[in-house]
Write a structure and sequence with these properties.
Layout (H helix, E strand, L loop, with lengths): L7 H5 L1 H18 L12 H14 L5 H6 L4 H5 L6 H18 L3 H18 L8
Helix pairs in contact: 2-3, 2-6, 6-7
Keywords: Heme, Iron, Metal-binding, Transport
Family: Belongs to the truncated hemoglobin family. Group II subfamily.
Organism: Thermoactinomyces mirandus
Length: 130
């Protein structure tokens, strides 16, 4: 019988580490002048959705899909003007959050690769359209 490979979610510490990542990430987002205008004043529900999404993305339980259906990230982000600069600002905040939470090595590389693809996929405006 083939042994199931441990997910990134499990390798980094599961629920606790994903929560730490989200909690390190969002203060940076709301402090960023490019990103803050895209988020509601009450960031709590956004943080919870991000926690559920990252849990699922990293191989943990399908919390996001169970509650909201398929992620359909680009469609869900279309109402927001996401420029290449905003995608880069989002990634910079996430990079700092990964540093703060001590996620490193091949797990970090795997997470980073997925997040870079996702961030660039969200871009829906050029700088001149903003």
């Amino acid at each position: 019988m083939k042994q199931q490979q441990e997910s990134i979610y499990e390798k980094i510490g599961g629920t606790e580490k994903v929560r730490q990542l989200v909690e390190a990430f969002y203060p940076r987002v709301v402090a960023d002048p490019l990103l803050k205008p895209l988020f509601p004043e009450d960031i709590g529900p956004v943080m919870e959705k991000q926690y559920m999404f990252l849990t699922q993305l990293l191989g943990g339980p399908s919390l996001y899909s169970d509650k909201y259906g398929l992620p359909m990230l680009r469609a869900r982000h279309m109402p927001f003007p996401i420029t290449p600069e905003r995608a880069q600002a989002w990634l910079a905040c996430m990079e700092q959050a990964l540093d703060e939470t001590g996620i490193s090595g091949e797990e970090r590389d795997a997470i980073w690769g997925r997040l870079v693809i996702a961030a660039h996929h969200m871009v829906n405006k050029s700088p001149s359209e903003e």
